Amino acid sequence: MAIKLIIGIGNPDEQYKDTRHNVGFMMLDYIVKKGDFPNEWEINKKLNTLTIKGKFEGSSVIVAKPQTYVNKTGESAAKLKNFYKVKPEQILVIQDDLDIPFGNTKISFDKNSGGHRGIESVMKALKTKKFYRLRIGLAGRALAKTRLRVAEARSGEAKARRQTAKRRDEFVMKFVLSKFSPSEHDEIKKIFKEGYEKILQLS
């Protein structure tokens, strides 16, 4: 397998467990369950991450959950890269994505961040965009409606545009930090299966 290091994006505190912004961490748990990982997660204070080593489809891989919070994921990503001596193109970062409809996943390489601050942090720390990303879609109807209102407000007065943009930012923050509904949890299982199969294609 070409991928040597898999990094999930998420927030470490218990209050963020199973929230939409932590879908990267959730996907890592799925990968560890499916792969050959005989040991337990270990905290590496030097790298500020939870890590676990094992085999994924027969190839050795390190899986990591940075404990830096989403917006500073790059700090741990750079340390992990240097410590394990992997190249950027051997890294896969798993993220939530508001530009992809819920229920869909996408593999990207050498693409822009799309405004995701965690990804921006990784790009800045690694000094490159040339790493793989599994983007797990979160976009739903409520988010689409909010974006539509912002688009419509662009033709209005500056004050109205600022107020609408502020409401959008507040909505997005509340949305990504909310937990998945029971019905969405059922869908997540299918999404992770699809994502897992796409990761296999990177080998």
Quickly list its features.
203 residues, Rossmann fold, seven-stranded mixed beta sheet, 23% strand, alpha/beta, single chain
Explain the overall architecture.
The chain is α/β, with parallel strands linked by helices and 203 residues long. 42% of the residues lie in helices and 23% in strands. The N and C termini lie close together (4 Å). The protein has a seven-stranded mixed β-sheet, with helices on both faces. Helix 2 runs parallel beside helix 3 and helix 4 runs antiparallel to helix 5.
CATH superfamily: Peptidyl-tRNA hydrolase
> SS-based structural class?
alpha/beta
Tell me roughly what share of residues is in helical segments.
Answer: 40-55%
Please give the largest β-sheet.
7 strands, mixed
Reported CATH architecture:
3-Layer(aba) Sandwich
Unreliable spans? 144-153
What's the total count of β strands?
Answer: 7
SS strand fraction: 15-25%
Number of helical stretches of at least 4 residues: 6
Mean of all residue-level pLDDT scores: 87
CATH topology name: Rossmann fold
Overall tally of structural domains? 1
Order of helices and strands: EHEEEHEEHEHHH
Strand order of the largest sheet: 2-3-4-1-5-7-6
State the shape. globular
End-to-end Cα distance: 4 Å
Ordered list of secondary-structure elements with their pairings:
Layout: E1 5-8, H1 23-34, E2 42-44, E3 49-56, E4 59-66, H2 73-84, E5 91-101, E6 105-109, H3 117-126, E7 132-139, H4 141-153, H5 158-176, H6 182-200
Parallel strand pairs: 1-4, 1-5, 5-7
Antiparallel strand pairs: 2-3, 3-4, 6-7
Helix pairs in contact: 2-3, 4-5
